[in-house]
Amino acid sequence: MYQSLEEAVLDLEKHGHLIRIKEEIDPDKEMAALHLRVHEAGGPALLFENVKGSSFPAVSNVFGTLERSKFLFRSTLESVQKVMEVRNDPGTALKKPWQHISAGFAATNALPLKRKLLEPVGKQQINISDLPLIKHWPEDGGAFVTLPQVYTEDPEKPGIMNANLGMYRVQLSGNDYKLNEEIGMHYQIHRGIGVHQSKAVAKGEPLKVSIFIGGPPSHTLSAVMPLPEGLSEMTFAGLLAGRRFRYSYDKEGFAVSNDADFVITGEIYPDETKPEGPFGDHLGYYSLTHEFPLMRVKNVYARENAIWPFTVVGRPPQEDTAFGAMIHELTGDAVRQEIPGVQEVHAVDAAGVHPLLFAVGKERYTPYQETKRPAELLTIANRILGTGQLSLAKYLFITAGENVTTHKEEEFLTYVLERIQLQRDLHFQTETTIDTLDYSGTGLNTGSKVIAAAYGDKIRDLCTSVPAQFERVAGIKKSRLVMPGVVALEMEEYADAQDAEALSRRLSEKGSDETAPMLILCDDAEFLSKSISNFLWAAFTRSNPSHDIHGVNETFKHKHWGCDQLIIDARRKPHHAPPLIKDEVVEKSIERFFAPGASLEGYNF
């Protein structure tokens, strides 16, 4: 049980999970670059003791692996899992009460503890400019907080039990922000803070916001937990910490997490925005500059021996991948309780989480019929796409069957492609919402979705080499097998959709090959076929189903579109955001940390 981030850092160091970086390091890209180098190698957490321009140390990669995350919560993990099990299915406690006694004891830590004094976080008041102002990627608009816990209360029902704690991007410097006075608050659709701000706007008053940074690791994880309805993030933070969430209100009425390392308070006024971004984000591209709410800073608090936690996001896998794995450990089969018939839902990390979902459900509607076709699966699919942040997905592949798992991506997709009837089993939603960070659509937050539902017996063998179908076809520069049934077709740079449509017509004239049901148009067939992760990333982050899906032998009957071979145009388009590329000068500069006598001497990161 940690009472502070400092305690967790010292515990990690004691057990060989953390290295101190003693040399001065520049927060302008160097810290992020070193973090990325160490994380990619599966290395330890890093404590930066000497951050240029700040007196505060910083720590990263604390949650860098699932094993390290489980180590941090080793004393509370089992009891929290039991609490979640009881919360998701109260009947389990009645069936086996002796197995859930510990859950009752753990739940005593759930109720937040209100205190009068702002201690220990209120030990000193500082300015934004005193903080480690970390810029992560070359084209970032400024310094960002990447592990914030953003706290707001319901203007109509104030109080901590109706509060929201979320992890929303915070820009501290750059653009048009007045340093120490203004910061940017980037929050996306389907976020609790948006509901609170809407209510504040309706009342004609500013929304009070408190940003907690640091504190026990459980507080950070709680800010990203997809919790069941009615379970607040603060109660979960107490459960996971094994210690009640301690909070106070300052003289101006802002909530303050007593155990945080830093707290930034301020107000968001109705209709007040400023340009925020760009920012290198978790899809592996920059999210671009857009108008987002402006927060007017009131106070910045810091505890004694405060440590600034941060992470770096980019093309998966990154540290937030371990967050997702830890969430799965804690919530278990919560989604099965929420959506009847669901066996598994897997937001595919390699594709940036939100663009691509794999799901396994049950098919029980017509067991008496000999012909098997998706039925209940379509009901389940629509429930999935109407549930929380799952609704941001663009592609949902869903099936049913014994011994099918979504977590072995190539096996799962092979199973689907062996069974899907492409003339029947593709279902589109157009002009709808997608992830704010996804620029493949028709505008900010807008795009389309497709459900690919497969059920029944195997109907085809998948090709294990590139079929002859693609030999000497105009427009195809190169073809490569990605996996059984999936072929990458390299074409000229994208200009408009006409060349993809023309290719589909030429392939239709040549004759379809059902052994290759999925074709990916791309800029670089060697890259896309090099690994499954490259395929999943490029194909599903660079396409908008309604605009970029074409087909061999397309049909359109009674408003239903189908084909014999699915073509996904995953070439980069002019409206796409640029991908993240490392700064070579910075990459060379961090080599000094591996030199003889330096902090990382002897490490092969």
Count, helices? 18
Q: Output the structural class.
A: alpha+beta
Helix content: 25-40%
Q: What does the overall shape look like? A: globular
- Would you report the number of β strands? 30
- Percentage of β-strand residues: 25-35%
Indicate the mean pLDDT: 92
Q: Biggest sheet: strands, sense, closure?
A: 9 strands, antiparallel
Radius of gyration: 25 Å
The N- and C-terminal alpha carbons lie at a distance of: 31 Å
Q: What low-confidence regions span 5 or more consecutive residues with pLDDT below 50?
A: 90-102
Written overview of the protein:
There is one protein chain. With 605 residues, the protein is α+β, with helices and mostly antiparallel strands. The chain is 26% helix and 25% strand. The chain is built from 18 helices and 30 strands. The strands form seven sheets. Strands 5, 6, 7, 8, 9, 10, 11, 14 and 17 form a nine-stranded antiparallel sheet that branches. The chain has a five-stranded mixed sheet with strand order 19-20-21-23-22, sandwiched between helices. Helix 2 (30-40) links the parallel strand 1 (18-25) and strand 2. Helix 4 (77-88) packs across helix 6. The chain is globular. It starts with a helix and ends in a 16-residue tail after the last helix. Mean pLDDT is 92; it is low at 90-102.
